[in-house]
Amino acid sequence: VAFMSKHNVLLAGKNLEYYHSFHENIRVKSGAWDENGVFVYATLSHVKYCLPNGDSGIIHSLANPIYITRVAKQNMYYIDREQKVGKQRLNCSEYLFKLALHKRNFNDVKLWITNGRLCGNAVIGYLKQKGFPEVALHFVEDQQTRFNLALEYGHIEEAMTAGMGWGGV
Fold first, then answer.
1. Which of 6, 17, 22, 104 is the most buried (most CB within 10 A)?
2. The model's pTM
3. For residue range 136-158, what is the model confidence (pLDDT) as tens digits?
4. How many CA atoms, within 13 angstroms, populate the side-chain half-sphere of residue 139?
5. Rounded distance, CA 44 to CA 21, Å?
């Protein structure tokens, strides 16, 4: 269940147990749950998402406000201010990657990594922040970055290999 007010969204479970709430500086217009349990919502200027663990982000910007009616199979159905019904394909790769990581579904995480459709530095930072340095090491191709990341998390063998690869050791 999602409760929306002018600038706030509160997410709760089926029995109204509190999950997460957040404040938006720009008015919240509408929202819908997708089949993965991710809340996708629209403000005046963006389409955003919120995961069950509270992580959120921007999917894309909007030129004109929309009112989301449904989100399914990476498609968003909406009504605009001219009362026209629309359908738009969403780029859900970022939030599906984060959701797979949250659910510890590492096979899906690996698929998202190998597809390479995610922005490297942002994903590495997210993985470090969430405590998954081993997964972050799979993302990094730059040997100096691999060296620093491996050293930071105590992966000495990996740091030695990376250090020899760029001549730092």
1. 22
2. 0.79
3. 776 677 777 778 778 877 778 87
4. 24
5. 19
